[in-house]
Design a protein that fits this description.
The chain has 416 residues and is of the alpha/beta class. The protein folds into two domains: 6-200, Peptidase C15, pyroglutamyl peptidase I-like (Aminopeptidase, 3-Layer(aba) Sandwich), CATH 3.40.630.20; 209-408, Rossmann fold (3-Layer(aba) Sandwich). It is built from 15 helices and 14 strands. It has helices at residues 22-29, 48-62, 120-129, 144-156, 183-197, 220-230, 254-261, 266-269, 273-296, 312-318, 331-336, 344-354, 359-373, 376-383, 398-408, and strands at residues 6-12, 33-34, 37-44, 66-72, 79-82, 84-86, 113-115, 134-137, 162-167, 209-214, 234-236, 304-307, 324-328, 388-391. The strands form three sheets. The chain has a seven-stranded mixed sheet with strand order 2-3-1-4-9-5-8, with helices on both faces.
């Protein structure tokens, strides 16, 4: 029997002298079941330590398929989809137990930033269509809201859709000198967010992964490494699936195992251009299968940067368009400069070519192989993929390229 799907929604009691907290009222208005998914509800105290304890205990007991935490951000005008949780407690006012931490870590010596695993872009698009003010926020504050947001992302590693939503005051809050929103609109917004999360309960979707695809000599590997370093993220370098190579089943992965088990590599360079292209295409499919298996195990609460073989069609299914960048160089560069790089693999291939009876003919054949897989048709597939495209520019500094890439990925507003 299929396990019943559950989404846990949390809200807070009033705090700071207020008599009501809009999130508690929203919680009371939500149906107990939405689209066949059970809606679990938990009202939390506005206390740093007790809120985490109660939420973790309830979460572990019911084992939900998604977690959406609600909080009040008095003074904001819109629904805020919080993207980033910070490992800090810094209370402007005491919590309801009287505790007022100052610059205290939530989890000692842990990552400073953890990231939500909700479909942020989808949520904002849906709410905007309904004319509900909304934004993706990179500041969940440092009070009790951020406290449980960070603690739960660490607790479940973001392996289910997990996020925090801040709502403005409502009129009934009594702060008429501050922006507020109608309670009905806030309830509608949370229902729409739940609607956006439900299709992702069973869907393999990488909300915090950023992919760069394209051809050789475009700078993909360099950008992936620089992004991972700057954002202290997970680095999936070129051919990161190679760590599984020795364990692969030859029947299931014949093309990847071809080079693993090849006795005489002269056979590798003697293939015709069509044979070489066919092998490259089939290797890419096998690499995609391995990459998806690896990425399923990557912690979802951190940013992950991937130099990938995953196809354009598959990327459109597993990640937002804004999380994929195409980097391209003129196809001729991949052919003309192939043996200019000092890496051992390319120099070994060149050595094999020079050992052939007719090295010039062997080199010409291998050049045609490279031309086959760096064709104008392949280049145009990337250009017309629907993703953002960044072309190689030898006059542009690598640091300038990094800033452009960060703009495309909408990462600039995140403080490292």
């Amino acid at each position: 029997m299929e396990k019943e799907k559950k989404i846990l929604i949390t809200a807070f009691l009033p705090f700071g002298g207020d008599n009501i907290n809009p999130t508690e009222l929203i919680l009371n208005e939500l149906d107990n079941e939405i689209k066949g998914v059970k809606i679990e509800k938990l009202l939390l105290p506005v206390e740093f330590l007790k809120s985490i304890e109660e939420l973790k205990n309830y979460y572990d007991m019911i084992k939900p398929d998604a977690l959406i935490m609600l909080g009040l951000a008095g003074g904001r005008r819109e629904i805020s989809v919080e993207r980033v949780a910070r490992n800090v407690r810094n209370a402007r006012i005491p919590d309801n137990s009287g505790y007022q931490p100052v610059n205290e870590e939530i989890i000692k010596d842990n990552d400073y930033y953890l990231y939500n695993t909700l479909p942020n872009e989808m949520i904002t698009e849906i709410l905007e269509k309904e004319n509900i003010p909304v934004k993706i926020s990179n500041d969940a504050g440092m009070y009790v809201c951020n406290n449980i947001f960070y603690a739960m992302l660490e607790h479940n590693k973001g392996n289910i859709p997990t996020g925090f939503i801040h709502v403005p005051y409502i009129k009934e809050s009594g702060h008429l000198d501050k922006p507020y929103m109608a309670l009905l609109d806030e309830v509608k917004a949370i229902n729409l967010i739940i609607d956006a999360v439900i299709p992702n309960l069973d869907k393999y979707y990488l909300f915090n992964s950023y992919f760069i695809i394209g051809n050789a000599y475009a700078g993909k590997s360099t950008m992936i490494k620089m992004l991972a370093d700057e954002y202290k993220g997970i680095w999936c370098e070129e051919n990161y699936h190679d760590k599984l190579l020795e364990t692969l089943d030859k029947e299931k992965y014949p093309n990847l195992c071809y080079t693993r088990d090849l006795v005489d590599f002269h056979d590798f360079i003697r293939r015709s251009p069509l044979e070489y292209e066919r092998w490259i295409n089939d290797v890419s499919k096998e690499c995609e299968d391995l990459e998806l298996k690896i990425l399923k195990e990557v912690p979802k609460n951190k940013l992950c940067f991937v130099d990938t073989n995953i196809s354009i069609d598959t990327l459109k299914k597993i990640t937002p368009l804004s999380h994929v960048l195409v980097m391209l160089a003129d196809p001729s560069i991949s052919v003309d400069l192939f043996f200019n790089r000092p890496d051992k693999e390319k120099q070994y291939l060149y050595k094999l070519i020079m050992e052939e009876k007719d090295p010039d003919l062997a080199l010409l054949n291998f050049r045609k192989c490279l031309e086959q897989i760096n064709s104008k048709e392949r280049y145009n597939e990337f250009m017309n993929s629907g993703f953002n495209v960044l072309l190689r520019d030898d006059n542009r500094k690598v640091e300038e390229t990094l800033e452009i890439v960060k703009d495309y990925f909408k990462l600039k507003e995140i403080t490292k």
